[in-house]
């Protein structure tokens, strides 16, 4: 069975389950007795096991199976959740994450058996008390102590065998192969019983040969059975392996089995012809404490996707969309087709007033396309919770690693961003949080001396601001020591003594974003190498955003990231400078002003204007772009007031061309490292207009 077509779905659902497990195990640590949390963890582990088994990832299946066993015992009240168990479970999640990464990159889970983790999980199953006694109790060598299937489960005994079937089974037995009877129970909630049965057959056939089934294979395919069916298997594998492979299939409630011993067929007499063949059954259900046995490569390889020499890493390329959003999108597409047909019809008419008809349809077409764009944007938008939900686990680990007490408070997880932006924002946020935990928050002793709560607080807030999304990372720690940064910059030769004295606090703090700049006294596995903030700044700017920091010594710091909602299509202000057309994102533009040359003042040799109580510096775009302005000196200036955080600037242009919806095109390597040009767009007349990044000019 080729399952490679389901690989992307498998990866998406695996990540969802892993995130759910991370969240629920964190909740379990706070409330170990919460039954809902325990049941949710059990269900997630069970689903992961079934998915991994179906895809042929045996190592992943084994690990999740053992996790499921632990929570099965927790649900039954046999064992209690303890702190060391939480640590073990998180290690298991890390191992599963490693498997998932390997599968994404190469379609193979790797070779790590994680035997140490599996042993730790099995140790959790041992009750408190004398371990030696427990080990003795766990042995099932005596037939009297073996767990036997009930009479109702042993349905393989009731399968009538004809002479040919007995001969086949007998010959297999003489060759040293084992014969097992297995009864498979399907969950009552299962909708596609035939599909699950097919997966069971495929799983068993990897380990052996199915000689007989009851009901017949055809009846099973036609779902002509209740909630269970029975098979007789010829195999060289253990019963434990057979049962484990069956249970790995999703929506299989249970599987029981025993070894069958086929005796010699007696000579038939008239009386014997009506009797069922004698089948001696040797109960041999394996102990539940050990489930893993390495399968043969030739067997397991059949279930795995075929690897290709030039296989590429499989990315997360799916977006789950609300059906209502898709309905709106479909309706708009229909309207677009109608508008197009009307436009074609109107253009072919040779009657008076046809131009008016065309203009009307073009206006209608524009309205529809605008609505279509908005709808498509909504389809591409996903909540940032998929990224931020992994951070509570990270803060928990840092709490132990740094020996600090800290809490993470999050808000705005439902805030939506374009999928491409969400995929890239994880690393910058992780760096900022680690920076707050390591450098920002003080130790419990220092916090107590300063009259602060013993537990430090880190806040992650997200909210929408116009056409931007703002994400803030703040803490109530020590804040940034500006003088320390200034001295470090002088020491490293980043700036001279004279330059450092004349630099403002903000300019000094901005030095932290330089590559390899760090104030840490020692390098640890958490931070200190000076690469974190550099990564943050470069990544955010690559996404068309900005990052700034505000700090107060002794009170804490706030890191603010501002990102565009989408990277594909934006509303832009089209302007002309020196006869060339340029686009400026409307997200940055606050107002348009007509300024007389006499209103321009000089402050410290810089041109400024006084506008509604604010002093705003002027930036002449023709000078920045090194082109000659077409505006006459005595003419009033057209100024676009742009804003970046708390800062404002006035961009002087020659002419306004109006507002336009533009599609952003990357320039690749055609324009070096110019930060002023963020891309280009193709206008309706075929001309190319460069897109200016106003944030660089402020």
Report what the structure shows:
The protein has 24 helices and 23 strands. Strand 17 (606-611) and strand 18 form a beta hairpin. It folds into five domains: 4-127, HPT domain (Four Helix Bundle (Hemerythrin (Met), subunit A)), CATH 1.20.120; 149-288, Alpha-Beta Plaits (2-Layer Sandwich), CATH 3.30.70.1110; 324-382; 384-564, 2-Layer Sandwich (Heat Shock Protein 90), CATH 3.30.565; 569-697, CheA-289, Domain 4 (OB fold (Dihydrolipoamide Acetyltransferase, E2P), Beta Barrel), CATH 2.40.50. The longest helix is centred in the middle third of the chain and has 27 residues, at 354-380. Residues 129-148 and 265-315 have low confidence and may be disordered. The strands form five sheets. The chain has a six-stranded mixed β-sheet. Strands 2-3-1-4-5 form a five-stranded antiparallel β-sheet. It is 42% helix and 23% strand. It has 698 residues and is of the alpha+beta class.
**Morphology call:** flat
Share of β-strand residues: 15-25%
Helix content: 40-55%
Runs in which pLDDT lies below 50 for 5 or more consecutive residues are: 129-148, 265-315
In whole angstroms, the N-to-C terminal distance is: 60 Å
- Helix run count: 24
The largest pleated sheet is described as: 6 strands, mixed
Count of structural domains = 5
Helix and strand content put the structural class at: alpha+beta
CATH architecture call of the largest domain = 2-Layer Sandwich
> What is the total tally of β strands?
23
> Order of strands side by side in the largest beta sheet?
15-19-20-18-17-16
Mean of residue pLDDT values: 79
What's the CATH class label of the largest domain? Alpha Beta
Superfamily (CATH H level) name of the largest domain: Histidine kinase-like ATPase, C-terminal domain
């Amino acid at each position: 069975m080729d399952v490679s077509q389901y690989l992307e779905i498998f990866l998406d659902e695996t990540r969802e389950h892993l995130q759910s497990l991370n969240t629920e195990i964190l909740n379990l640590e706070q409330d170990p007795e919460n039954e809902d949390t325990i049941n949710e963890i059990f269900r997630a582990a069970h689903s992961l096991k079934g998915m991994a088994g179906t895809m042929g990832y045996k190592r992943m299946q084994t690990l999740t199976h053992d996790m499921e066993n632990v929570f099965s015992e927790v649900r039954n009240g046999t064992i209690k959740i303890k702190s060391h168990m939480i640590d073990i479970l998180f290690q298991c999640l890390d191992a599963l994450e490693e498997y998932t990464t390997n599968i994404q990159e190469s379609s193979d889970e790797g070779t790590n058996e994680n035997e140490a983790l599996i042993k730790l999980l099995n140790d959790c199953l041992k009750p408190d008390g004398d371990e030696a006694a427990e080990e003795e109790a766990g042995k099932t060598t005596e037939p009297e102590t073996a767990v036997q299937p009930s009479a109702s489960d042993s349905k393989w005994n009731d399968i009538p065998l004809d002479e040919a079937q007995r001969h086949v089974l007998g010959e297999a037995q003489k060759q040293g192969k084992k014969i097992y009877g297995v009864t498979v129970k399907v969950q009552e909630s299962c909708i596609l019983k035939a599909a699950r049965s097919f997966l069971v057959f495929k799983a068993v056939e990897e380990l052996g040969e199915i000689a007989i089934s009851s009901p017949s294979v055809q009846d099973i395919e036609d779902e002509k059975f209740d909630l269970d069916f029975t098979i007789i298997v010829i195999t060289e594998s253990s019963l434990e392996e057979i049962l484990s492979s069956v249970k790995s299939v999703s929506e299989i409630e249970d599987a029981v089995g025993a070894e069958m011993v086929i005796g010699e067929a007696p000579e038939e007499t008239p009386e014997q012809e009506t009797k069922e063949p004698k089948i001696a059954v040797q109960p041999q259900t394996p102990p539940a404490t050990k489930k893993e046995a390495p399968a043969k490569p030739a067997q397991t390889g059949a279930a795995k996707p075929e690897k290709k020499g030039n296989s590429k890493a499989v990315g997360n390329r799916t977006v789950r969309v609300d059906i209502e959003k898709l309905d709106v999108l479909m309706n708009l597409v229909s309207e677009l087709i109608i508008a197009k047909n009307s436009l074609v019809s109107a253009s072919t008419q040779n009657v008076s007033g046809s131009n008016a008809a065309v203009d009307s349809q073009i206006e209608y077409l524009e309205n529809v396309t605008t609505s279509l764009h908005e709808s498509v944007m909504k389809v591409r938008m996903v909540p940032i919770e998929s990224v931020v939900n992994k951070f509570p686990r990270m803060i928990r680990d840092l709490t132990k690693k740094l020996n600090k007490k800290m809490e993470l408070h999050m808000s705005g997880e439902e805030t939506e961003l374009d999928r491409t932006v969400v995929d890239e924002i994880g690393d910058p946020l992780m760096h900022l949080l680690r920076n707050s935990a390591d450098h920002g928050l003080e130790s419990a002793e220092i916090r107590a001396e300063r009259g602060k709560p013993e537990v430090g607080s880190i806040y992650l807030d997200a909210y929408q601001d116009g056409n931007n999304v703002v994400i803030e990372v703040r803490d109530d720690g020590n804040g940034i020591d500006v003088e320390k940064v200034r001295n470090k910059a002088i020491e490293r030769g980043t700036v001279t003594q004279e330059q450092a004295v004349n630099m403002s606090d903000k300019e000094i703090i901005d030095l932290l974003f330089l590559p390899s700049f760090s104030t840490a006294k020692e390098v640890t596995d958490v931070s200190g190498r000076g690469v974190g903030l550099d990564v943050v700044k470069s990544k955010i700017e690559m996404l068309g955003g900005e990052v700034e920091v505000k700090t107060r010594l002794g009170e804490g710091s706030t890191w603010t990231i501002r990102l565009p909602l989408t990277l594909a299509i934006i509303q832009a202000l089209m302007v002309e400078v020196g006869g060339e057309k340029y686009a400026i994102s409307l997200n940055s533009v606050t107002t348009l002003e007509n300024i007389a040359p006499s209103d321009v003042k000089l402050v410290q040799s810089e041109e400024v204007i006084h506008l509604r109580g604010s002093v705003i510096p002027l930036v002449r775009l023709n000078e920045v772009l090194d082109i000659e302005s077409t505006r006459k000196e005595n003419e009033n200036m057209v100024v676009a007031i742009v804003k970046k955080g708390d800062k404002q600037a006035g961009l002087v242009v020659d002419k306004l061309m109006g507002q336009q919806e533009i599609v952003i095109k990357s320039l690749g390597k055609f324009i070096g490292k110019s930060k002023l040009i963020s891309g280009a767009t193709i206008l309706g007349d075929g001309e190319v207009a460069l897109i200016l990044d106003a944030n660089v000019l402020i």
